[in-house]
Structure formats: structure tokens, C-alpha cells
Amino acid sequence: MSTEPTQAELEAEIARTRAELASTIDELTTRLDPRTQAANVAHQTKQAAADTGTFFTGGGLPEHDPVRARNVKILVTGTIAIVALVVAAILRKRS
User: Fold this and answer.
1) Pfam families this protein is in (predicted)?
2) Are 60 and 66 in contact (CB under 8 A)?
3) Distance (Å, rounded) from C-alpha 74 to C-alpha 58?
4) 29 SS3 class
């Protein structure tokens, strides 16, 4: 019994490998596309703003998605930092 693959089996394996490689390249191209990345950032920013509004109206953090909860915390912390800097600048200018 021969364990050597036949030419047809080798050609089928090569075709499968090429198809997988093409699929991987297409996926990476889509992920790295600047328009796609910008759209993802815009969507995440809008979602974080909506989640922050829900948080401040008593709805709490999104429990089902830790990334969204983290984005709310980042947005709230960034807002507090900006307000603190503006207040410090105003107080420094007055003295």
C-alpha cells in the first residue's frame, strides 16, 4: 500500500490552501482598510456616548459587553480630566 498522495489529491490540497490564503488576505485587507477602521471607531464612539448617557440616567454599565463598559469608563474619566484642566486653567488665570 502506498501512502504517497496522488497528483489529484495534491492538486486538491493546493487549491484548498490557495482558497484559504485568498480568504485570509481578503479579511486582512478589509480589517486594515482605513474607511473600515474609521467606521468602526465612529460606531464605538457613538455606542460609548449612548452607554454613558444610559449610565448617568441610572441604567448602569453594559454588563453583557465588558468592552462597552470599559469605553464608558474611559469616556467618563476623560471628561472629568478635561473639566479638571479647564477649572485649573481658570483658577490659575484669576490668581
Assistant:
1) DUF3618
2) no
3) 18
4) helix
